[in-house]
Amino acid sequence: MEIQKWLVVVHAHNLGATAGKPFGVRSRSPLVGWRAMSDIAIRVEGVSKQFGKTLALEKIDLEIPRGIVFGLLGPNGSGKSTTVRILATLLQPDEGSATVDGIDVVRHPAKVRERIGLAGQYAAVDEYLTGHENLVMFGRLSGMSKGDARMRAGELLAEFDLADAAHRISKTYSGGMRRRLDLASSLMARPRILFLDEPTTGLDPRGRLSLWTIIQRLVTDGTTVLLTTQYLEEADRLAQRIAVIDHGRVIADGSPAELKARVGDESVEVAVVRPADLPAATQILAAATSEEPIVDVERSRVIAGVSDGAAALARVSAAIAEAGIATDDLGLRRPTLDEVFLSLTGHVAESSDAEEAE
Fold first, then answer.
1. How far apart are alpha carbons 98 and 19 in whole angstroms?
2. What range does the domain containing 167 cover?
3. Cβ(106)–Cβ(93) under 8 Å?
4. Which of 160, 236, 242, 273 can bridge 180 by disulfide, Cβ–Cβ 3.0-4.6 Å?
């Protein structure tokens, strides 16, 4: 409940003020280099946070340029939400520093709140108010006049495909509608920087795709988005840059393509209709990929790692067709989130209660 209250406070301070003064900072981390502050939306240097005996964040460094989606990827309890709460001024770091729009989050939290929007893991809307009333309330708390708040609420309800439900109490909304309303409320005062903390958790595929489209549109309009997620697919779809965080430490960063290249090669996977064709398919993959295939007899599948993706798939496809082998499936396979963490950390991603305990 405390977090819910704080989310409302953050929403209420989205006042959209002017940017901080540019200056250059040199960081100790390879993640952070020489950049003008005017080009950087968020900078985190050596930030640590501990809850009791649990170290939630350990000297993390981040540098997030303006006008992109920056994905913070990791399992539950990895430190993603703690990072967001520090940047949104809901928590103070034990050590290190962080700036949002050039403003120190500890020294000037009120000024930071004027520039940000936050949509947490759970929709922070009043279920006994209508969608329109919720947005007007957030607008008024942000200092907007009643007329401006009503006008902005109407714009957002239309943009988020909620106009037909504008005057229904939000308790009757579906999960996807509530998430869209929550995101709309965080945008009432047109924040420059938006924190989305696992915004698609619990949504069905249609709701997730809808929210992805909205996020992409926001960035096109100039908003900087810090997105936390457990899903590699979501980060891949939305983010221009990704940092992987595990057990409170940043263990990798880069573009989605760079991250996948670090994690491992793609694989060509073939599923045959007739189990008797499995040996022939295995020989074809071995010849086309120069790799030792992995054979799954139980599912009549064979997989081989490749370094040239589409070209290898074309070679395998042509050879399979020439051999007259009927397939249930034939395609490229990318690493899963578990494989990403297994490759980077040597262990499967595990959940932790550290952030929940906080």
1. 16
2. 2-256
3. yes
4. 160
